[in-house]
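Fill in residues.
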């Protein structure tokens, strides 16, 4: 790092420089982050302790909630602390680590959503082969590949950032470190790097979104041959997945498919997919899924019974 830059730290401007609005940002981010942690931890504990939620869909949901928790934690705590700071600074090393964590868990969420769509496709369109195709061993291997693939993707992003020199200025017009605002500070031509960024992050987001939407179109078409009750249950699950996909992918595609171009609205859109979506995911899955709600009720009932017996 010392060979590539004279900058030892960056200044994060945040969402606003107005002191009163910064307090509003602090309260909002704190509320969203606490809701994200509590909601996703509840899902993690419920799936881990409930025998009724042992299907591959809930195995993938477990890892989705885990990635949501880590994804939000990579950004929210520092953003909350910086909202009360007069001058928010982050060291060069911490900035690079944040970029790595952001892209690692963001990419992991994308891969898990793809696996969840594949699981629903097999369950609805190939029900006779479901237990064979989506066996526990296969699901474990698929999730392991998702973690490895996310790590490779994130390391590629870091290599792009470290390949450029930073010699000043050191002010990032954002509330967290990301490649596009970071590359604007590089004292070198970043055109090729931005194209590589689009071909990596942008392509992953766009291709995955198209594949997901195409798969759900096929799934929804196949529901015409199911019974009314089976159609209602499958439709409820698929709608939940589609909502999550749209809420996460559309902002990401907007941000990561524009080489070397930024808009003032980018920071607000980033708030939506970095702070808002991790909070909405557990709400969507619990409010629209009867099995998860029933498992949570049983878990809560067991806790009350154990407390009464003490």
């Amino acid at each position: 790092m010392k060979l590539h830059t004279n900058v030892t730290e960056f200044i994060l401007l945040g969402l606003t420089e107005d002191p009163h609005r910064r307090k509003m940002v602090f309260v909002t981010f704190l509320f969203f982050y606490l809701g994200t942690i509590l909601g996703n931890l509840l899902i993690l504990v419920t799936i881990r302790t409930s025998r009724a939620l042992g299907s591959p869909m809930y195995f993938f949901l477990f890892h989705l909630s885990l990635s949501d928790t880590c994804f939000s934690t990579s950004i929210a705590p520092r953003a909350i602390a910086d909202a009360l700071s007069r001058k928010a600074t982050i060291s060069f090393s911490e900035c690079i680590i944040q970029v790595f964590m952001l892209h690692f868990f963001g990419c992991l969420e994308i891969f898990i959503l793809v696996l969840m769509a594949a699981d629903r496709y097999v369950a609805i369109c190939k029900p006779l082969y479901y237990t064979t195709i989506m066996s526990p061993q296969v699901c474990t291997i698929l999730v392991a590949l998702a973690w490895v693939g996310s790590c490779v993707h994130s390391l590629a992003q870091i290599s792009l950032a470290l390949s450029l020199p930073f010699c000043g200025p050191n002010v990032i017009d954002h509330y967290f470190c990301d490649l596009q605002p970071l590359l604007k500070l590089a004292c070198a031509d970043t055109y090729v790097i931005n194209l590589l960024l689009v071909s990596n992050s942008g392509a992953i987001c766009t291709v995955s979104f198209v594949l997901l939407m195409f798969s759900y179109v096929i799934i929804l078409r196949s529901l015409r041959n199911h019974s009314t009750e089976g159609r209602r249950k499958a439709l409820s699950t698929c709608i939940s997945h589609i909502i999550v996909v749209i809420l996460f992918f559309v902002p990401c595609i907007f941000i990561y498919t524009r080489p070397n171009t930024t808009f003032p609205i980018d920071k607000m859109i980033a708030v939506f997919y970095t702070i808002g979506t991790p909070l909405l995911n557990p709400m969507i899955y619990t409010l629209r899924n009867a099995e998860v709600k029933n498992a949570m009720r049983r878990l809560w009932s067991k806790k009350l019974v154990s407390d009464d017996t003490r």
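The chain has a mean pLDDT of 84.
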